[in-house]
Design goal:
Distance between the termini: 26 Å
Strand content: under 5%
Oligomer: single chain
Number of helices: 16
Radius of gyration: 22 Å
Shape: globular
Mean pLDDT: 83
């Protein structure tokens, strides 16, 4: 790629195939280009848009193995011992990485990596009670141009305007979710097949990982029905099999407690990561392309901590919204190329935030009056 120049266009632009957030014009030494659209990006760095089966499989299997091994070690270790604490932390962060492949599944084309979704559900999704149907199918509503940041977006809420108590509740209460997940899959799921009104409630409100409480999941149709049938049946069988094993004494109750601690830890860490995925300043109105970009965040800061909390490419969240079809293992490379070639006043650079600093800003703004609250996107637009 040659030296790049960023250029913004009005929100009502309807030109096809152009980057949704803003246009990037290239000026190669021999031939100037007017704009760089999606097709041109693919042509320039095409290999970076191909999902590597080796990387996907090795990454998932490695961290699933490490996570479940650490889970078993922690479950056998004396509660509160150093071994227990270390093993539990390893299990939380290893299984967090494995679990967050659910995000990649929502973007992978069916058949691109054969068997990947099935294996993920068998070794991660079903055991953690978060089968892929909870994200695949609904997550793309978060990427719709006209729906982002509105009530139709399952993954957007006005967090920037929340109180401190609500923010704390948002993070803490998700740790209680593992207590009700067995009820969802083992009881309500099967019963909803017999009672249509309950089915609509279970599908609309109890089957999706959301932060927008007003979001209602539509009923699955076509091929999606088969996915729902298979995953709901598998989850129900798993719940009752574990319940029977506990009653029979085959599985110690301590192992169930360890499962809840680790699953709750995974969800809590991911909830913290969610807080720094966007600015969450929109009040339900449709946002233009540049506003959507500036509301998304690329995390920087301590590399190891950032990778642990936002694995599988999620630390490049703004870039992911900019080019959602890039596989997670290529986001870092493309991000570095953009930073090397874009001018200093490019809106993309305004997406770079320090994770800890962003959390501090959210906490500080939670007590500030509305007019005094810091708006990173507004400042970036004024620069």
């Amino acid at each position: 790629m040659g030296a790049a120049k960023w250029r913004s266009h009005p929100a009502n632009s309807t030109r096809s195939n152009e980057i949704s957030m803003s246009d990037v014009s290239l000026a190669p030494p021999r031939r100037a280009r007017q704009t760089l659209n999606v097709r041109e990006i693919v042509k320039e760095i095409g290999p970076d848009f191909v999902s590597s089966r080796i990387i996907y499989w090795s990454d998932l299997l490695t961290f699933a193995f490490v996570g479940w091994s650490a889970f078993a070690i922690g479950a056998r270790a004396p509660f509160g011992s150093l071994l227990y604490v270390v093993a539990t932390l390893v299990a939380v962060f290893a299984l967090l990485r494995a679990a967050l492949f659910i995000h990649e599944l929502s973007h992978l084309k069916r058949g691109r990596i054969p068997g990947f979704e099935l294996v993920w559900n068998l070794i991660v999704g079903i055991p953690l009670m978060i089968p892929s149907l909870m994200y695949v199918g609904s997550h793309m509503d978060h990427h719709k141009r006209m729906g982002f940041g509105t009530n139709d977006d399952p993954e957007y809420a006005q967090i920037a305007r929340w109180s401190r108590l609500r923010i704390v509740t948002f993070v803490v209460t998700v740790a209680l979710l593992p207590l009700v997940l067995p009820l969802r899959w083992g009881v309500l799921g099967p019963l909803s097949r017999l009672f249509p009104p309950l089915r609509r409630l279970v599908i609309g409100k109890l089957s999706t990982l959301v932060i927008n409480a007003s979001y209602v999941r539509p009923m699955p149709k076509g091929e999606h029905c088969k996915r729902w049938d298979a995953q709901e049946a598998a989850a129900a069988v798993f719940v009752w099999a574990v319940f029977g094993a506990v009653i029979s004494g085959w599985i110690p109750i301590e192992w169930i407690a360890q499962w809840w601690i680790i699953t709750g830890g995974i969800l809590s860490v991911n909830q913290l990561r969610t807080l720094v995925a966007h600015g969450y300043e929109n009040e339900g109105e449709m946002m233009d392309a540049e506003a959507q970009l500036l509301d998304s965040i690329n995390l920087r800061g301590w590399p190891i901590l950032t990778v642990l909390i936002a694995p599988v490419g999620l630390r490049f969240h703004a870039l992911h919204h900019y080019l959602p079809f890039i596989p997670y293992h290529s986001l870092g490379l493309v991000h570095r190329r953009l930073l090397a070639e874009l001018p200093q006043n490019a809106p993309y650079r305004a997406t770079l935030r320090d994770g800890v600093g962003t959390l501090r800003g959210i906490w500080r703004n939670a007590t500030a009056p509305p007019r005094a609250r810091f708006s990173a996107s507004r400042v970036a637009r004024e620069v």
